[in-house]
Amino acid sequence: MSGILEIRWHGRGGQGAVTAAKLLAGSALREGKHIQAFPEYGPERTGAPVKSFTRISDSPIRTHSQVTAPKVSIVLDPTLLEVVDVAEGLPEDGVLIINTTEKPANIRKQLGLNKGKIFTVDATAISIENIGRNIPNTPMMGALIKATGVIKLDTLLDDFKEKFSSKFRKEVLEGNVNAIKKAYEEVIAE
Question: 106 in helix, strand or coil?
């Protein structure tokens, strides 16, 4: 990885976009990377659109501003495609990862995009199947790692287990780990 990898997370309040941004950053730190993770605050009530951001670099990060041109944009809720420009600021080689049952080509057509790579995964179904609730942040992290290789899957899984083993019951912890792995395996690239 050269330079700073900037990632923007789009979700709705309660879907874990802020948690995902922070967990990814913490996992990257385990690999010796330099990190930043922060939310964009507004009316964060359940269901309201929210954004959070992650920066990862091999060298110190001196930037302390909002992320306006992310290399990666992650969408936890497909209904946001109708109300938010999730591709705003993406460069020509940018990556868009969306929680949806649609194929990447359909998303490209829907959004009128002619740049970058698009990845899709049904993180909603994966989270319901493995966690018992529609909280797509952990499966989307698995999809992100597969799409970008930003960190190793094992690093994320070890970090997740360490951070949440005292917070979650064993079944919930294992469900999240399985959701990450399943999305990693099932993400579809165009």
Answer: helix
